[in-house]
Amino acid sequence: MHYLPQQHTSGFSSVLALVMIGFLLMATLGVFQLVLREMYDNRWLEYSFQAQAWAQSAGELALLAIKQKGYGYYEAHPFGWDSWVNHILAEDPNNPSKRDIEISFDLNTRINSYDGNLEALGYDILPLFYMTGSTPTVFQIDDITLTSPASISWNLLGSSGWGSWEGDFDTTTSLSNKTVSSQGEITKNTQTIGSFLSQNEPVYLILFNPTRSPLSYRIESSDFFSPPEAYILTSAKKWDKQQNLRIYLDNTQYLNTLKYAIYGR
């Protein structure tokens, strides 16, 4: 009788089983990591979209504050964790946390020097003051220096009169101040720009380029005033995701009815 040699397959089967278990384990871990990554990405997108939307809402609140309190209004980061806005936005208004939306805005609307460029037949309007506070207080400049070509026309508009000329000026420059009586009569008197600023509040400066070529100018003061173009920096944060937006504010566009004042001499 003949016997077949015994085949030793138990070792091979064990190795094959270990390979299959390892493969399944790696596949399972890979799928698990993909699921976790997808969940993280979805949460990141959700929080990012929420922060983006609320940053835009903060910009609307900033524009509303400007509309209610006036152009030239300045305020920095009015909203914090303890503010009424973030309490309202919180899931638990009595106990806001980092899981809730936090919004803020910064009105970068005051400066003490400005370099501007006027296109041909273009104009800029600068409020020579800024406002701040819950009940806005006007802070107007006491001194000013304009460095510009002689061809630039400027007009100072105050609460009780106006004066105009061309080229450079500073606080000691004399101008012909014109006022209109209740009967429509125009009277003139000569005074310095410093005196005009102290007697009129608020005062706006209108610069006009009557030429066919671009012109540049520079305005300086030891006090703060509002530029013709400012910006609002808004921010919203949801958990660890934050979105910031910059919104440009064109004072010249919003105050463009003042451009119909008298230019030149």
Question: What key phrases describe this protein's structure?
Answer:
four-stranded antiparallel β-sheet; 265 residues; alpha+beta; elongated
Largest sheet strand order: 2-13-6-9
Tally of individual domains? 1
Estimated share of beta-strand residues: 35-45%
What class do helices, strands and sheet pairing give?
alpha+beta
Element order: H for helix, E for strand: HHEEEEEEEEEEEHEEEEH
How would you describe the overall organization of this protein?
The protein has helices at residues 10-69, 84-89, 193-199, 251-254; strands at 101-108, 111-118, 123-127, 129-132, 137-140, 145-147, 153-157, 162-166, 169-170, 174-180, 186-192, 204-208, 215-225, 229-238, 241-250. With 265 residues, the chain is an alpha+beta fold. A hairpin with a 5-residue loop joins strand 10 (174-180) and strand 11 (186-192). The protein is elongated and about 115 Å long. The model has no long low-confidence stretch (mean pLDDT 81).
